[in-house]
Amino acid sequence: MPASTDPLADFRTRRLELAKGRRATLLDLAPARDAADDAPAGTGTAVLYVHGFSDYFFQDHVARHFTDAGIPFYAIDLRGYGRSLQDGELPAYVTDLAEHHEELDRAVETMLADGVERIVLLAHSTGGLIVPLWLADRRGSRVADAVVAVVLNSPWFDLQGSDRFRRKVDLACATLGVVRPTAVINEGLGTYGDSVHNSRNGDWEFDLRWKPLMGFPVRAGWLRAVRRGQRRLHRGLGLQVPVLVLRSSRSELGLRAFAPSAMSADTVLDVEHMTRWAPSLGPDVTVEAVQDGMHDLLLSAAPVRERALAAIDEWLRPLLAGPATAPASTAPA
After folding, report:
1. Most CB atoms within 10 A, among 85, 233, 246, 277?
2. Beta-bridge partner residues of 48
3. Taking the model in full, what pTM does it have?
């Protein structure tokens, strides 16, 4: 893309003020009027995108895929990430994933105030853990009842590695995560950034202050929060909305340096964990492997991401075929 062109220049950006001086950022893009006019009946539907760890929203091609079909698209930069990161904040750091519930509440409330009637949640990686936990905790509320479908793009359902390794990490998190929660226990995400940024081997331009090539440091308190969330998911969440779990066809973990094979595999997470734990989400879960996908399937090579988007479209089509109706619950968010 030309350096002078901001691909998100036509997105609306709104700051969501949160408790204790924190903030989140909500972006949205409306369909062109002719696309909206041609939209299928009942598309009072919008997509809300939730990013993962060491990430923020920059995937304008994903937004335009939906708005070209007449579906409004929203994306949130969570507290401590991207446009929401404030001076003095540790990036990508919370000690309880439930801290993110507040901004998800606010994002959905804003969408409903905009006239959206039903919401498809599209979440990636750690966002794919945060979103199901939020839905489970908000069960029966107005914000949760507005959600009609969930799409998880390579969700982080378990810690990669052996059972012995996970036990060691959990023991460390149980102690260090309490006594020294900001202690760095891992410096980042290895070679994945080399696979996606256009200064290296990837196709994508993004702000390296907000998405460093190596990722942000992993801190003990944050990883403790993730592991608590994963164990809760393993016990079962009982979500009553349909869920699509998309994953790569294979993982290639432990790379010490970039290799061409990293362009067609998940080099961050174990895809078998995604299949293993997907049934813990609820009774209506579909798992689909996308051949040659990278960790973020929607940043993979063009044919791969087109297959991923086509899979989402096909899965959503019958769910969105009927007219939209207002959320049934009148419970407070």
Report:
1. 246
2. 74, 121
3. 0.93
3-state secondary structure the chain: CCCCCCCCCCCEEEEEECHHHCEEEEEEECCCHHHHHCCCCCCCEEEEEECCCCCCCCCHHHHHHHHCCCCCEEEEECCCCHHHCCCCCCCCCCCCHHHHHHHHHHHHHHHHHCCCCEEEEEEECCHHHHHHHHHHHCCCCHHHHCEEEEEEECCCCCCCCCHHHHHHHHHHHHHHHHHCCCCEEECCCCCHHHHHECCCCCCECCCCCCCCCCCCCEEHHHHHHHHHHHHHHHHCCCCCCCEEEEEECCECCCCCCCCHHHHHCECCCCHHHHHHHHHHHCCCEEEEEECCCCCCHHHCCHHHHHHHHHHHHHHHHHHCCCCCCCCCCCCCC
Name the burial class of residue 114, with classes exposed (0-12), middle (13-18) and buried (19+) by CB atoms within 10 angstroms of its CB.
middle
Q: How far apart are CA 109 and CA 89, in angstroms?
A: 26
**266-300 burial by CB neighbour count: b if 16+ within 10 A, else e?**
bbbbbbebbeebbebbbeebebeebebbbbbbbbb
Distance between CA atoms of residues 10 and 28, nearest Å: 9
Question: Using CA atoms, how far apart are residues 161 and 167, in angstroms rounded to an integer?
Answer: 10
Label residue 304 exposed, middle or buried (CB < 10 Å: 0-12, 13-18, 19+).
Answer: buried
Q: What is the pLDDT of residues 100-149, one digit of tens each?
A: 999 999 999 999 999 999 999 999 999 999 999 999 999 999 999 999 99
Structure tokens at 86: 């404030």
Q: Is 194 within 8 Å of 201 (Cβ atoms)?
A: yes
Backbone angles phi, psi at 182, to 5 degrees: -90, 5
